[in-house]
Amino acid sequence: MSEQLDATAARLVSSRDPEVRTRGTVDLARIEEAVRDILVAVGEDPDRRGLKETPRRVAHAYAELFAGLRVDPTDVLDTTFEEGHQELIMVCDIEVQSFCEHHLLPFLGRAHIGYVPGESGCVAGLSKLARLVEVYARRPQVQERLTSQIADCLHTTLDAAGVLVVVECEHTCMTMRGIRKAGARTVTSAVRGTLQSDPRTRNEAMELLRRTAV
Ligand SMILES: Nc1nc2c(ncn2[C@@H]2O[C@H](COP(=O)(O)OP(=O)(O)OP(=O)(O)O)[C@@H](O)[C@H]2O)c(=O)[nH]1
Ligand SMILES: [Zn+2]
């Protein structure tokens, strides 16, 4: 785990994104203190045997769950291949595990990403699309922003001619608390470039998505 955090810190220092660069490293001690305070505030005894290690565990869990705050998403798209492919590429059913920034509770589901490469015909490695989802999801988020950040990054960094991102998630802040409506799914989309301006390509992408997404 500490190796993972060190690697994250090293990337942070060299990041091209100034916002990422200034975020510093995770303050584990401070999270531990805060978790201890929460346990006291809800009426628990943070010194009882079962809870003694909890602040430390939560601190490490948060460092992992919010690791995306310290990764520059453009780094993910560094490796590309000149394939001369200028038609639609779709990766469907990419698992999404993120945290609603309003309640710090998870929202979980899937992302579907389609793009048409730009004039260079440069394509990204398929796993990089899933990595991109991971970088943006491992931050305090709202689903709409997660969706548009993925689309914008592909559009600008990969110089894709067109991008379509659809995200569907269940929010535990709506199922475990509050209104408690289990099963409600939120679907968001972001469309950029030719997939926005050319209805034929967009319809082709939507039709593929309907046929292939589970
Ligand atoms: N648009 C959007 N809303 C979200 C997302 N995640 C959580 N929310 C909503 O954020 C809102 C926060 O509303 P508030 O009224 O400030 O908080 P609250 O009193 O806890 O709201 P309730 O959940 O209705 O009890 C809630 O309606 C949540 O359902 C998201 O990804 N996108
Ligand atoms: Zn929420």
TrEMBL record:
The keyword Protease does not apply. GO terms for cellular component: cytoplasm. One of its GO terms (biological process) is one-carbon metabolic process. Transmembrane segments: none annotated. It catalyses: GTP + H2O = 7,8-dihydroneopterin 3'-triphosphate + formate + H(+). Zn(2+) binds at residues 100, 103, 173. Its EC number is 3.5.4.16. Keywords: GTP-binding, Hydrolase, Metal-binding, Nucleotide-binding, One-carbon metabolism, Zinc. Residues 31-209 form the GTP cyclohydrolase I domain. It comes from the Bacteria. Pfam families: GTP_cyclohydroI. The keyword GTP-binding applies. Signal peptide: none annotated. One of its GO terms (molecular function) is GTP binding. Homopolymer. NCBIfam families: folE, PRK09347.1-2, PRK09347.1-3. Belongs to the GTP cyclohydrolase I family. HAMAP family: FolE. This is GTP cyclohydrolase 1. It comes from Streptomyces himastatinicus ATCC 53653. The lineage of its organism: Bacteria, Bacillati, Actinomycetota, Actinomycetes, Kitasatosporales.
